[in-house]
Structure prediction request, 343 residues.
Amino acid sequence: MKQASSRVMSAFEDSFDRTLDFERMVELYRPRIFRFALASLGDRDAAETVSQDCFLRAHGAYASFRGDCSLQTWLMGIAVNLIRDQLRNRRLQFWKKTRSAPMPAERVSLNRSQQANDSPESLALLKQQVEAVWTAAELLSARQKTVFLLRFVEDMDILEIAASTGMKEGTVKKHLFRALQSLRLRMGPNK
Amino acid sequence: MNEHLDDGRIARCILGDGDAEDRAHLALCSACRVEVEEFGQTLRAFRGSVRDWSQCESAACEIGPKWSVRSALGTPYCIAVTFLLCLMGVAVSLWQRSNRSPGRAGSDPDSVLLEQVSADVARRVPDGMEPLLNWLDSTGTGGSSPGTPLTP
Prediction:
């Protein structure tokens, strides 16, 4: 009897620990998932939905997570799939596309350290270039945009991006290379 | 020195994938080095702008109204309230129907018309013969009311 109760208690404690772990995980990774979804979709509501769905799916599959990759890579993989689904659905809703049109001027804000160090002219030029990156990034293909954002916004390396997107390392490199090339091409001579 | 790096090679250098030749060129050519550095700086600024934007939007999500029609309709409490309201509406309409008085029903235009028609039908003497009936009444030969049928 005593053994049974102790087993029940240890199972309860395990589940409690897992719940706490999961809560910590949400707290830690939610901003990153939201940021990636926001940059990919350009729509706050959609990004919020994606990040909620991502953690909902992660909660369902958390017990089966074997730790083959980092938690961030695993979560990003879920988010990449959800974003792909969102974009597929959005193709049927043309009005969503107009609503989430790029607004570089509103989005662009430079860091305070940059603002403190640089002259107003160079800051204006940098802001203009960042706007151009926004505009050019909106025109990238879905895969190119995904790998570009994972690499240059989320600071993930090629292997992590490959694990998150399910692509091969070489394919990731190819998409990144093409993304950068078309960005430079679209940004014009003042890149 | 060779000519400057093309877009593809600069992109490779930015990705950190440049070969020894590219690295050697960058070490010697300040123009290409500046270009790579400037593009790197632009990408870092872009990252900063995405992060700032995300923080602002995230804060807006937290500050913004928690209640939405979708979430409210999703809660069992609101479903129960909606169901109760519908039930009350049906009950009130049934009660109103059952309490409708016959006197009030008579005041309907349809009922008035029906009464008028039945009165006209009940009348056995046509309107055109009423002066004759009045005359008969006044002479006392008829001895009948306007409603009584004329005997041949």
User: Anything to note?
Assistant: The mean pLDDT of chain A is 80. The two ends of chain A are 74 Å apart (CA to CA). Chain A touches chain B at residues 31, 34-35, 38-39, 44, 47-48, 107-111, 114, 126-127, 129-130, 133-134, 137, 149, 151-153, 155, 173, 176-177, 180-181, 184-185, 191 (CB under 8 Å). The first helix of chain A runs from residue 2 to 41.
